[in-house]
Amino acid sequence: MAYQTYPSHAPEPGADQQRPRPRAGFGLRGPRRERHVLAPEDLAALSFPVGDDGVVIGVDPQQQPAVLGLFRPNPYELVLVGGMWTAQIIALRAAATGARIAVETARPQAWAPMAQAAGGGQPCVTIHQVGRLGAQGASVASPVLVVRDLGARPPRSRLSAAPWQTTLTLLPYLGPNAVRVLNAADLVGIQRVSPQESEILARVLSLGDQEVAALPTLGDNITLWATRMRRQFVMTNPGEAEAQLLGLARRMD
Length: 253
What we know:
By secondary structure, this protein is of the alpha/beta class. Helices cover 21% and strands 21% of the residues. The strands form 2 sheets. The protein has an 8-stranded mixed sheet with strand order 5-4-6-7-3-8-9-10.
């Protein structure tokens, strides 16, 4: 395509030189300004309210934002021993960051309202029958959260692990194969459980006595997120739109 420029004033009589044409894709030069320079001693003044990138899932005991780094350049496995409400909050907030959500569930009717509401009309949440979940094509530009809502005895996933693809397995309570599922997890979220379940979780995750004693008494919106090295209690409260869609926090559905 040919680009033509027009002079802002008539050329001088006898002028035989043409003005250079601007290169396609490059506009006029903007005003030249001084560069913004920050002295090394001023770097400490730069701070952000959230310490990591990810999904804000609530607040910690110090009322600071609790951020869950869901998506990574390697496969990531999460287990939530808790209620569907918390799993849907996580999925809804992950969708708000631009991630795609794929739900494998035996109760699609329970996920349908969230799937229809997420993404502002964009089809970012898909629901799949048990065993019918195919490859999702996750990438750094299009991360995927796979939610497996298959009861207390979830079968092994047929979906291959992939970078930028995170799997969240929801366990309403600890079933016969729970130890296998927990041992394969990179991060475990625990909501209110029975004292017997607390003892099992303590052995698998090396929980302390205070944490074990607290688990049977947790409120519906409290989750203990734990690895074998770190633990963090998080309180999750829904926003106004989330409460209208999902209702208030509840441990069982």
